[in-house]
Amino acid sequence: MEFNVQRDGLTLAGIYEPADQPTGTIAILMHGFTDDRGYTSSALLVQLAARLRAIGVGTVRFDFNGHGHSDGHFVDMTVLNEIADAQAVLTAVQTRLHPQRIDLLGHSQGGVVASMLAGYAADAIHKLVLLAPAATLKDDAIAGHTRGLVYDPHHIPATLPLNDTLTLGGFYLRTAQLLPIYETAQAFTGPVCLIHGDADQIVDPIASKRYHDVYQDSTYHLLPGASHGLDGQARATVLDLATAFVQD
């Protein structure tokens, strides 16, 4: 069912899918950079949500601002305002659905957002699953190369053309350079599952290794041959690992 959320005048397009035999846990799923909550059966978050509902975990997926069907413009998107998006969704889940437990699952940049939100709201989060979390976005911004863009990291322009249809805001990169990703993430001391592919050409697996080093209770799975999208033969393994972790 529709689960739209308001955040600072923007409508975030969300969907809530309850489990047939609910256990009391709701999982909030977060997509990556330039992606969306999933609108096809082959989408990672769609498949993950279906598997979670099969074990009694209701799911909420949403489009970050400037993505999918949500309000806003991509050029205005930053990791900081995606955290604000995620916080608004978390509050809506708490107040509208009243779950016994809330888990967060995030892919790529959504993993960074999930990890930082879990740090800020450690008392509200039960478990955390990070799928190829893109914490290297900070390293990339400092070095002056982001997703094919090359720029002077000390003199970042107001906007940068990412591709034929999307323009990245310079403030995204300026804030990325200073994000306290791991410092914030480690405030969450609950169970964490880290899944990364060793053939990821977008986010170096060192990102997940660093998370593993700062967390108190984490498991780290490095999947041979898996790409950033965690698709192909790796997809079944990813779904199995994430579902088993949430269910335990």
What does this structure look like?
- GO terms for molecular function: hydrolase activity.
- The structure is a single chain.
- The protein is an alpha/beta fold.
- It has a single domain, classed as 3-Layer(aba) Sandwich (Rossmann fold).
- It has eight helices and 13 strands.
- α1 links the parallel β4 and β5.
- The model has no long low-confidence stretch (mean pLDDT 97).
What is the N-to-C order of secondary-structure elements (H for helix, E for strand)? Answer: EEEEHEHEHEHEEEEHHEHEH
Portion of residues within helices: 25-40%
- In the sheet with the most strands, the strands line up as 3-5-4-6-7-12-13
Query: Which sheet architecture does the biggest sheet show?
Result: 7 strands, mixed
Helix/strand structural class:
alpha/beta
Say what the CATH topology is: Rossmann fold
What count of structural domains?
Answer: 1
Overall pLDDT level? 97
What percentage of the residues does DSSP assign to strands (E)?
15-25%
Rg, Å, rounded: 17 Å
Report the CATH superfamily: Alpha/Beta hydrolase fold, catalytic domain
Q: Just name the CATH architecture.
A: 3-Layer(aba) Sandwich
Based on DSSP secondary structure assignment, what is the total number of beta strands?
13
The DSSP helix count reads 8
Characterize the overall form: globular
Distance between the termini: 27 Å
CATH class call: Alpha Beta
Pfam families: Hydrolase_4
Domain Serine aminopeptidase S33: 28-140
Keywords: Hydrolase
Protein name: Alpha/beta fold hydrolase
